[in-house]
Amino acid sequence: MDDRFNTIAGWVLFAGIVALGSSIVAGELFHSERPEKMGYPIEGVEIEGEAGAAAEQPIAAFLATADASKGEAIFNKCTACHNINQGGAHQLGPNLWGIMGAPIAGKPGFAYTEALKSKGGTWTWDSMSEWLKSPKAFANGTKMTFAGLGKPEDRANLLAWMNSKGSNLPLPAAPPPGTAESQDDAAANRGTGPGNGPQKAETEPVITEQQAGTNEKNIDGEGASKVTGPESVAPKKPN
């Protein structure tokens, strides 16, 4: 009995040693190191940390030297979803004939997303450049899956060519050399910057805790005591 037990225990121990050895050998053979650079670059997508490294010049600076013939070649990336022929039918995306200067999401007969319809306005040089740079950043919720054109030179060339197809927007004045659009300016152009919406006046009265009280109706100032000017601020502490 003891001999049989010893035999079984020996085989179990041997099997464990074989399994452990196999695991070590496999780990050495298939060992892989974390790559220095993760993933693959996608055209039009900025690498984290590069955004904001240098402010980009306005698109007007690149339109002055834009080459429409190069823009026609760039449009080949768009032909899977769009055509730009006069009277052409809509495809996955709308027909783009005469698009420059036209209302945003205004082509009759095409079902635009609410994200794009809510933008309003027209396709100007700046708005179309922002759209081509990153559709999802321009209209969050759009169904357009194009990653975008990261190079402003490519966008300027494409805009120049699109403008020749049923549109005739005058070129914007070139900015002074060295002019760059700040992040605040870019946000203001998209309607999200600090210059948009109501601003708080410097002389707006401050309501004290005694004036506001503890009534829940005082949320958002609706139930606060009325004040008429900057004199109605919190009393100063005596010196």
Overall description:
There is one protein chain. The chain is mainly alpha-helical and 239 residues long. The chain has a domain at 59-165: Cytochrome Bc1 Complex, Chain D, domain 2 (Orthogonal Bundle), CATH 1.10.760.10. The protein is 33% helix and 0% strand. It is built from 9 helices and no strands. It has helices spanning 2-29, 59-63, 68-74, 114-117, 125-133, 135-138, 152-163, 183-189, 209-212. It is elongated and about 100 Å long.
Question: Would you tell me the overall average pLDDT?
Answer: 74
Structural class: mainly alpha
- Write the element-wise H/E pattern from the N-terminal end onward: HHHHHHHHH
Bin the strand percentage.
under 5%
**Biggest pleated-sheet summary:** none
Q: What is the CATH domain class of the domain at 59-165?
A: Mainly Alpha
Q: What would the principal axes of the Cα set say about the shape? A: elongated
